[in-house]
Structure formats: C-alpha cells, structure tokens
Write a structure and sequence with these properties.
316 residues; Rossmann fold; 2 domains
C-alpha cells in the first residue's frame, strides 16, 4: 500500500515517522523549507519514551508543492492520502489528494477544527472520505525534528459506514504496526466534535499564555477557563444533536492535558512562528454555531478574539 502524508508539520511528521517503521510505500507532500529538509536529511523523530530515530531521506518520496503544485509526479498512485495540514489549506490539500489517489483510494483528514470532512466530501466524494482525530502530542523544533511529546491514540471513522471496509482495515493495520493505537469510530461526528472540544479547551489558552499543555492543570484559574471553554463547546454540539454518551467531558480534557503535558500545542507553535492559526475553525466555528442557535459562549468568543489579536500583531 502507498500512503501519502499531506502536510508534514508536527502531527504529519509524527505520522510519517511512525509509519516509516512499516513496509508501506510513503510519500511526504510538503513545501519549501520542510520539503527540502526531508529530501536532504530525512526525518528525526524523538520518541515519547526516550529513543531518537533517524529516518533516512530514501525511506519516503518527497513532493514539494512549491515546485509541483498538484503533486503530479505521484498522480493516481496513492491508496491512502492522510491530510494533516492546516484547516485553512483543506481545499488545496483536497485537490491534491484527489489528483494523487488511485480510483479506489481514500483520504483521511486528521486535521484540527470543524468542517474539514465536509469540505473534502465536496471535493472527493463522501464515500471516499474518512475523518479522524488523534490525542498523540507532537511538536517540531527549530531544526525540523519531531518530538512525540504525548502518547495517545488515533480515531478513524466514516460518515457513510458504521464498519470499516477493506482499505480502511488496511489503514488501521498500518497504524497498529506503527504503534499509533488506532480505533474505529462508529460515530465520526461525535469523535470530531470531541476533538474540537479538547482543542478549544487547551490550544488557545496555551497559545495566549505561551505554555506547554500541562501547565493548565497547575494553575486553577487556567484550568477553570479550560473547562469552561470545553463545556460551552459541548453544549453547542448537543444543541446540534451530537451527544457523548458515557463520556465525562471534564475528565477527558484533564486526561489529554496530562497525557500531552510536555507538548507545545500547534497553535502556540504557529503564533511563535508568526503563522496563521486554526482558531477560525475552532473557537471561531464554535462561536458561529452558538450564535446560530442562540447559545452564549463568552469564553470561546473571548479566546477567539485574543488569538486573532495576537495574529494581527504578528503581521504588523
């Protein structure tokens, strides 16, 4: 099986590095400096339990989209395209995925935020789109090394089917062999919303305060803010008919904070690097959904405004 990772940032780098231990063919679709580094130096993966793995550049094919915008060099040769890029790039990455997939191939979105699967459905066709989320924590250092900072799992599911088909089963097996702890979800919408709830509870707070995830729990004020943001998002989800049976939201948020305690969340990394964040598809989307249903979400609205203000100040 040939697997492409589209967007080799923190999580994309972790997925690419972990899958490098399997016997599947791999393609890294990235751009500019990241693509050049992967081609010349390979990938350095700092495992969560200590070892440092040096993955040689020959282990995967690299496509630089600044040179090959549509990834035409791997056109229609990919069985699974895993999209790990920013939610703002979903349309572009969806077009690339459509171009590189074999006729029976499928795309998996492991992106943060809400609305990504729906966009991909329009571009590729909902019968070929999988969605998912991960509680693995990762961050990228200045030299491009990937730090597997928190060990979790990957949830994969489909809006079309309750059980995995042949290609989905092959993907899950690949994740198992890579020690990524995959789980199949029969309720993808709930899984995506749960990931969004966790994201709004952690990412904007750590991004604004410049803290690693675990620092939230050590500060009662930050923890209270985190849980309030999660509670608001869960209320919005339930108003949309999405429920979370047998899940204690507060306990789940604290569990992820602890399991990724040493992680610098992607939103913090983006602000530190002067990049656009995914706040629009997280707190911004929660605020939009809340307004449509008349639900007050003052914490999410405030976090959204603060992160946007920092984004603007970074561009001045």
């Amino acid at each position: 099986m040939r697997i492409a990772v589209l967007g080799v940032g923190s999580i994309g780098g972790l997925i690419l590095g972990a899958l490098s231990t399997t016997d599947h063919g791999l393609v890294a679709v990235s751009r500019a400096e990241t693509a050049l580094r992967l081609s010349a130096e390979g990938l350095v993966l700092h495992h969560h339990d200590g070892p440092i793995e040096m993955i040689p550049p020959g282990r995967f094919e690299v496509v630089d989209t600044t040179i090959d915008e549509e990834a035409s060099q791997v056109s229609q040769s990919i069985d699974i395209a895993i999209i790990c890029g920013k939610s703002g790039d979903t349309e572009l990455l969806g077009r690339i995925a459509r171009n590189v997939l074999v006729s029976s191939g499928m795309v998996l979105s492991l992106q943060n935020g809400l609305g990504n699967v729906e966009k991909l459905n329009e571009i590729i066709g909902k019968e070929r789109v999988l969605g998912g989320s991960t509680t693995h924590g990762a961050w990228k250092d200045d030299s491009g090394g990937i730090h597997w900072a928190g060990f979790g799992n990957i949830i994969v599911g489909s809006l079309e089917r309750k059980s995995p088909g042949q290609i989905e089963t092959s993907l899950i097996q690949a994740f198992e062999h890579a020690n990524l702890k995959p789980l199949w979800s029969e309720d993808l919408n709930s899984s995506i919303w749960m990931k969004a709830i966790i994201n709004v509870a952690i990412n904007p707070i750590c991004a604004i305060a410049g803290l690693e995830n675990g620092m939230i729990e050590s500060n009662p004020h930050l923890l209270s803010l985190s849980l309030a943001a999660a509670s608001e998002a869960a209320t919005v989800a339930r108003n949309k008919g999405i429920d979370f049976p047998d899940i204690d939201i507060e306990s789940r948020v604290i569990e992820v904070i602890r399991s990724t305690s040493n992680n610098r969340c992607s939103m913090l990394q983006d602000l530190m690097s002067g990049r656009r964040t995914e706040i629009d598809s997280l707190c911004g989307r929660i605020s939009e959904e809340a307004e449509a249903s008349g639900v007050p979400v003052p914490v999410n609205s405030t976090l959204y405004a603060l992160v946007k203000a920092i984004e603007i100040s970074n561009t001045v």
